[in-house]
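Protein of interest.
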Amino acid sequence: MIDTHAHLYYREKDLAQLIKNAKEAGLSHIINVGIDIKTSLKALDYSKKFDMILPTIGIHPCNSNNNDSLNELKELALKHPFKAIGEIGLDYFKMYTDKKTQKQVFIAQLDIAQELNLPIIIHNRHAEEDMIEILNTYPNLKKVFHCFGSGVEFINETHSDTTYYSFTGNITYAKKGKMIQSIKELPLEKIMIETDSPYLTPEAYKGQENEPAFVREIAKKIADVKHLTIEEVITSTTQTARRFFNIQD
């Protein structure tokens, strides 16, 4: 298994213990996702300490009010083995930064990803219309919508050979609704699994801080919804994640 989205630098639990738990749960890798320059460098540092941790670099839309970081991001992405540009995107719910600035910073990072031939990890919240319009101009860029919850209509507008959808612990609480319908409709090979730890703890571990080892619960829920075995879901999502993030080991 691969946890394709975690923020290990925000954990309270001991990192070595989290890695031990992840290995015992059957994980081979954890994608440790940056949300600004500082956290991206932390993700890089963790990857030097633990082989199973793979770093990404990005400026989250809620942190997009500092355009000076873009040049530094590109320099770092050129110099270090980051696996993706992300977490990037649009967030029109919290609105810590105005829409115009968010779009400018998002597009600038899409350009960097395209130039460096890196995939992108997308944060999309209440911004579907602008998201679709912008991404339509980057059809060849590999992308994954993290913590997906937009529904089948959005899938129909964004579905392509280069687009993937990742689900996290919030689906374990759902009995019906757009997330469940999206899982039913999506081909298994278009799905990845994540924890978004230390947030969005699955129902089976409610009340605890989330961690990568719990990603099995997301695979289990997807298997239940799609009437598959958990082994089928684990095999497919792992293969998809390995291809998406160009994981060779």
